[in-house]
Amino acid sequence: MTPSTPETPAARSRAPSSEEAPHEGPVVGVRTLLDDAGISRSLLRIAHEIIERTADPERLYLVAIPNGGIPLARRLARGLREVADLSVPVGILDTTLYRDDLHTTGNRPALRRTEMPSAVDDHIVVLVDDVVKSGRTIRAAMDALMDFGRPRAVQVVGLVDRGHRELPIKLDYVGKNVPTRASEQVQLRNSDGEEGVLELVIIGAPEGDAQGGES
Amino acid sequence: MIGRDLLGIEDLDRSEIERLLDTADHMREIGEREVKKVPTLRGRTIINLFFEPSTRTRASFEIAGKRLSADVINFSPSSSSTKKGESILDTAKTLEAMDADAVIVRHEVSGVPRRIAEVLEAPVINAGDGAHEHPTQALLDCFTVRQAKGKIDGLTVTIVGDILHSRVARSNILAFRKLGAEVRVAAPPPMIPPAIEETFGVKAYTSLREALEGADVVMALRIQNERLEGAFFPSVREYSATYGIDRAKLQYAKEDAIVMHPGPINRGVELSHDLADHKPGVILDQVRNGVALRMAVLYLFAGRAPRWRAGEGS
Q1: B304 touches chain A (CB under 8 A)
Q2: Peptide bond into B264 cis (omega under 30)
Q3: How far is the C-alpha of A69 from the C-alpha of A89, rounded, in Å?
Q4: Domain holding B232: CATH number?
Q5: Cβ pair A148:B34 closer than 8 A
Q6: Mean pLDDT for each consecutive 10-residue tract of chain B (314 residues)?
Q7: Which residue of chain A has the CA closest to B21?
């Protein structure tokens, strides 16, 4: 049985629509890194790369990390259909309950949904996230994934690799490498739910602005 | 931000209740997994401190804690040190010295959880105190209704039974009112607290038929017949004939009305046999949802950066 209650506003807060202004305080500047068409091109290129490097593409299983990973995984699945006529399952895996900072900070972030349509055993799971920074979310996602079974392999797609890694995590497929300052924010904005127009932006924050990065 | 303790619905506002229900919504998925466990409260200790006997609520909290990977310790002082004269607060303090990250308290006297919360550093969660409150029961009832009906705002909820002595009724009245439902209560006159309409914003009925007219939710309360017979109604049989919910009486409610009961059911008293076993009913959903809701409570209240880590106090 799947939860019938619609996703709450709080659960969407990580991918705000472009009308909203999520960044408070003195905004130094907002710059577009990738527009909607650019994001689609990156994902299509990644779809080609996945097919090239995967000996057994029928075993592929995309797993989106919400919220940003969800529209990206959907587009990547469409890309795989176009490129190789593959129908790849798309799951959604919330990593919040696996975070490593719940106890040290005492923060209790809003949970997001998890929907894994089928077993991951013996599949080549490709985790899909929007922005990868410290690597802690990917670590949490791997732990969560293991609770769903034993994948044959786990790979990672990041639309943006910001650097600033804190764990030994490397991406298998990268949309765009963007060297950033730790104080800057990189956000995937979504005009409308999970199928809207996407835009990847970088928001410059003033020097010394300490922010808790979770990516 | 949600407070340190969960002592009653009276302390929560609408957005806090909704946050708990939204969190429970996501917790339910964990119960559907093959491995029903997440590492969120690994290394945390939760103490079930039950001065009054309980099977269902205690087991529900215990499963919820274990699904979040906490160590859950059950402690029933009625069978140990309170008999030796140790005070309730001393017992609670002793347990906290065992580094509890949350203490779940049930007591037959109203207000005991709040008194314990005043002396403990650890968060206290009320699992039922006297005729005062049973907040997690009300939250799981709201959660079950929201799941079955898709909303709570604008619904009519009729609570039938011993309103006067029931902490379940009190917490549910507060919760459903805060979430925008119309609440009615129906009972024999001695079981309706005086001034309930003015105090709680509910409508009180002695006629079950009128109370059920157009109801979306019918909630029957457990009658503690061993305690009440003779004093509050002439006989269980008479209570059942007038206030017991069966198919015929349910006709007065809306066609798609759901029937709820906090359990354990006195079959043939509060609910007829066929309604108690009705499928698809929501009474077993209430039990299942109780675990998800209590996981949400423990996630939001237990093990949040203890003060000694922040370098203050003990």
Answers
A1: yes
A2: yes
A3: 14
A4: 3.40.50.1370
A5: yes
A6: 90 97 97 94 94 92 98 80 68 84 94 93 95 97 97 98 95 98 96 94 96 97 75 83 94 95 91 79 88 98 63 40
A7: A5
